Amino acid sequence: MSRAQLEPTPSSNLQLIFNNALKAYEKRTKNDLLAHPLAAQLQACDSPSAILALLHQQVQELNQSRKSDERLSRWLDPTVNVLYALSATLGEGAGLV
């Protein structure tokens, strides 16, 4: 077996970290994030702009039920763009973050 076959890839490391985080969240909250309707909508997104459109819609709905908070919207765009770039860099194995 070659050395490359023995070492985990960056995308497999990220996938393992992500899966462990999902399990820890579910254990702590008793909620499966992947079963949430928003998770299916996010998985169908194929670009940062599609993700942002969906999340901005969620923010608007949240703001209608609460006092408007522009801070949430201000950090949303850069955060999604960084996460999407990281996901694309690490490859398809990580999927959409």
How do you describe this structure in short?
With 97 residues, the chain is mainly α.
Question: What are the salient characteristics of this protein?
Answer:
97 residues; mainly alpha; 72% helix; disordered C terminus
Protein architecture, described:
With 97 residues, this protein is an all-alpha fold. Helix 4 packs antiparallel against helix 5. The chain is 72% helix and 0% strand. The chain has helices at 3-6, 10-29, 37-43, 48-65, 70-90. The chain is built from five helices and no strands. Residues 93-97 have low confidence and may be disordered.
Q: Please tell me what the overall shape is.
A: globular
Series of H and E elements: HHHHH
Count of β-strands: 0
Extract low-pLDDT stretches: 93-97
The major β-sheet equals: none
Summed up, the helix count is: 5
Radius of gyration: 16 Å
> Mean of the pLDDT scores?
77
Broad structural category = mainly alpha
Distance between the termini: 31 Å
| DSSP helix fraction | over 70%
SSE topology sketch:
Elements: H1 3-6, H2 10-29, H3 37-43, H4 48-65, H5 70-90
